[in-house]
Amino acid sequence: MNCDYCESKATVFLTQLAEGQMKKVCLCERCAKERGVTDPTGFSLADMLLGKFEKATTGTTFRGKERSVGGAKVCPECGFTIDDLRKVRRFGCGNCYTVFSEELAPMLRGMHKGLSHIGKVPEGLMESHTRHQRLEELRKKLEQAIASESYEIAAGLRDEIQTLDEVS
Amino acid sequence: MMRFSTLIRHPADWMTGGQTEHGAVLTSRIRFARNLRGHSFPGWAKREERAETLAVLRPAVEELSAMKDAFSRELGDLTPVQKQVLVERHLISREHAARSEGSAAVIERRQSFSIMINEEDHLRMQAIRSGLRLSEAFESLSSLDSELEAKLDYAFDPTLGYLTTCPTNLGTGLRASAMLHLPGLVLSDQIGPVLQAVAKIGLAVRGLYGEGTESLGNLYQMSNQSTLGESEETIIARLERVIAQVAGHELNARDKLMEDDPQMVADKIGRAYGVLRYAHLIDSKEALNHLSLLRLGGNLGFFSAETVTLCDTLLMDIQQAHLQLHAGIKLSPDHRDTIRAEIMRSRLQSLESPDKHTHNKEETDRFTEGDNPQNE
Lengths: 168, 376
Ligand SMILES: [Zn+2]
Ligand SMILES: [Zn+2]
Known about the structure:
heterodimer, A: mainly alpha, B: globular
């Protein structure tokens, strides 16, 4: 059997549950390595591979022409594409983290002790950082208030959130 | 402009820190990864853009109070041997040495701080201290970082923290590590379980030299892996606690070896002394392993305490690029082994035989009963 991405002989076979369907992915040694399939750090294989797999079945390859296929996500600041991200598992600039936040989430799973930053904040950003934290807190409380049908509290929280939001 | 030879002539401050409370911990190192907002990361930036970023960063770094009269070079202006010497001194990374134009290294005179510009991230800055002093290294690097941050616009996100090229560094961008010398645990076959336990708490462990599981010179490096979701203080406190524990195990293992099998220990240290004092051809593997035993001998009272510092300095000086620099010409492997042995013999010339030293010590111990000769 041949690799789904190139013509080489496949040596790595994966069955992934994605979007409620079982999908089989065949990879050669090199492609498996390039996609971090042999990497044990717990990346979500379905997320890593699925986009590519769809393309692979329609006959396009990872390298080359499909890089600028219409509609593919690109960072407007640095031109880094979603394919670049899949290939190198690194980012092109700070703004990429906003552009590719969806792709980042599965990458971060199991990588660190947590998902949000605790620790040093650049002095100039301190104020907005604490405001951001306060906002998150308020939004959580708001959800709880709505869930417990405490609408009066929810209204108060909503006002507070609005005021804070306007400042930023 | 500080010359390369001036920078390298003297061993780094942290190499000659001498005896520390934990004889098992050689150095502590803190590294931050930082990037500029609105500039592509170095690996993605086009050549001109990398040059632009360098032009912004380099003056800012050179202006730092700690970097007064520092060594500062674009990588392209260093020879391959010079780059490799900086790698062997832990002042730049192997990856950074592979770069040339558009990347730079700025190194503080005493080699306690170094800043790589346009490595994987725009800035990789580090502080090294001797012994187990991670918090101290962190404090000093953090104030240097704050000084920079006042001038530069860092890429920072309230949720993700400092934004880095690779998501494995997100958040604090902090890598804290220590280099440990663990011959006691190796000789008593306890190293495996200890390292496994350390790995289990999420810390990375690797041999400093050698491939795979083999560690030449019984040197190990331990560092944090997670950078997001915990404060710098929490990460460092955990690492310091674990390292102090490992160092404690190491000292216990040494005590036990001296208790159970003093002949074996004396034999190993004596042989190491013999080889290093009299060999005329020695490869780096053999040299590292014997140096490790010599250092152990320094800790255990077979040699004077200064021997430990001497070993730590030699550890650098016998590596490939250091030898090359010392010789001033390109060396064949055989020639390298000759020069390595020459350096060993000359530096250890005045080191007294362990028998003589322990003999003298026994005499003095008789008068100061109760003093534990193994305490450092
Ligand atoms: Zn393939
Ligand atoms: Zn970008």
